[in-house]
Amino acid sequence: MSRALDRAIAALEAGQAVLAETELRALLRAKPGQAQAHHLYGVAALLRNDATEALKRLERAEQLAPQAAVVHQSLAEAHLRLHDLARAESHATRARDLAPQLAEPWNVLGLVLLEQRRYESAIAALRTAIELKRGYPEAMLNLAVACNRTGEHELAITLSELLLQNSPRHTGALINLGMAYKGLRQLPQARAAFTSAGDHPMARFNLGHVLLLDDDLERGLPLYEQRLQVTAPDDALGVRWDGNPAHGLTLLVQHEQGLGDVLLMSRFLAPLCDRFAQVLVHAPAPLASLLAKLDSRLRVVTSLAGQQWDLWCPMMSLPYALGIRSVAELPLAPWIRVAAPAQCGTRPRVGLNWAGNPNYTYDYMRSTSLCTLAPLLAIKEVQFVSLHRGTREHEAHEQGLAQPLLQAPDFLATAQVLTQLDMVISTETAIPNLSAAMGIPTVVLTVKDVDWRWRSWYAGVTIAAQERKGDWGAPIAVAADAVARLRELRAAA
After folding, report:
1. How many CB atoms within 10 Å of residue 101?
2. Does this chain's domain 2-228 share its CATH topology with 235-329?
3. Beta-carbon contacts of residue 254 (< 8 Å; ≥ 6 apart)
4. How far apart are CA 479 and CA 154, in angstroms?
5. CA-to-CA dists, residue 321 to 113, 264, 312, 313, angstroms
6. What are the C-alpha distances in Å from 376 to residues 100, 384, 435?
7. 341: pLDDT strictly greater than 80
8. Cβ(117)–Cβ(359) under 8 Å?
9. What is the CATH number assigned to the segment(s) 2-228?
10. Distance between CA atoms of 177 and 155, rounded to whole angstroms?
């Protein structure tokens, strides 16, 4: 019996999950109550990326050995694969409590906390894992990821380089090294790290980001397509459009990523109507009514049930499929137009937004609090209004700011509110994508790692970037200068 377990363990160490399962099936036929065998079977299923099968085996192992820390650790990994973060945290915490002296449970707990965007707790857990097991590569890599997500890029570089000392071709370390250099705006070093990672889709996707930052669309857009190897789009949508003429056919444009990216790419929707018999746009519900206003020939839906199409294209692939190869070919604002009510009042009206969706991976860095914008609010002869919706609405109420979006049911209503503004100042959310697409003067408050979307893809955008992590002083100063110019223009009118 022990020889069968030994063979299964050896197979797992060699990455041979199927061979391990063969050994374990024979063992469990003879001894179905063997907890270790059920656990190893679950580990093998995880190795095959079959989290559902793994969970079944691991739950049986837990029944047989409820105090085994390693079983709870594997259960946490299975639930994490299945995106059940609450159960993943429960089992990771249980594994840590049962074996606090072991590094592995701390690493899994850190990974779960990382996925929950609880970055400070994740970093503390991962640091503990590394203290308990010096040179622990999995925990070092996870900590590098956490550091990049929280702007601690220098530490991410140190961790990545330590990993590369022992494993010079470590793909994860090279990708995180590239992300860290990109975060510090050291683009040649970022480009070199991503290139060294070879053909890994995530590395090539991020290399595309760097090239787009240089406005190199000819090389950047093809590499940006590598995101589809990472996100695995739905093959059930059928044949992807390759950009060739397709008159007489129906094209489905499938939304992806965030609302801001849909607004960014919405510039290409109306031109598509000249290339197809019909353009069907599958859009998030908050954007549907606004996108339908772009061109009467567009058919915008929020569900694909009952719909038919011949070809489909991911929303973010439109510029590549349309043959856009330089920023000079990009349609520029305004391409979103809504009726503007009559203006009243003599003071400039400026909309402020300081935070986005807290569930966004990098929200920790991009969002702030309204008190950060206090130097703007102190400017006289300007009427500021809040454009924030979400968890920080109370801050606007406490500052006495009007909140005209509270009654806006969707982005069409939001756009109608924006038409009454002279300027928008916002962190990186959907709001500045909308205002910029409407041609409204927009100041984007960003981290040091300015996104390629703000550089040449919008006209009339002022980039106000941090000089140091978490220091909003420089961006606020740029925004204040923009407001001062606005006041001067209004006074001279």
Report:
1. 8
2. no
3. 233, 234, 237, 282, 312, 313, 314, 315
4. 28
5. 38, 16, 11, 8
6. 49, 9, 19
7. no
8. yes
9. 1.25.40.10
10. 10
**Amino acid found at 156:** A
Q: Check the CA dihedral 187-188-193-199 and report its sign.
A: positive
- Please report which confidence band the pLDDT of residue 472 belongs to, taking 50, 70 and 90 as the band edges: very high
* Tens-digit pLDDT profile for residues 302-314: 999 999 999 999 9
CATH number listed for the domain at residues 349-492: 3.40.50.2000
Q: How confident is the model at residue 326 (pLDDT cuts 50, 70, 90)?
A: very high
pLDDT at 147 over 60: yes
**What is the reported pLDDT for 339?**
84
pLDDT at site 1: 53
Lookup: tokens for 311: 């070809």
Q: 246: closest CA among 203, 295, 279, 223?
A: 279
pLDDT tens figures, 178-201: 999 999 999 999 999 999 999 999
Least confident of 3-17, 234-248, 441-455: 234-248
Note every long-range contact of 471-477, with CB atoms under 8 Å and residues 24 or more positions apart, other chains counting.
472/368, 472/372, 472/445, 475/445, 475/446, 476/372, 476/373, 476/375, 476/376, 476/445, 477/375
Query: Is the CATH number of domain 235-329 3.40.50?
Result: yes
Q: What is the DSSP letter of 330?
A: S
What is the pLDDT confidence band of residue 4, given thresholds at 50, 70 and 90? confident
Residues facing residue 402 across a β-bridge: 385
What DSSP designation does 240 have? B
Domain ranges of the chain: 2-228, 235-329, 349-492
Would you tell me how many other CB atoms lie within 10 Å of the CB of residue 214? 13
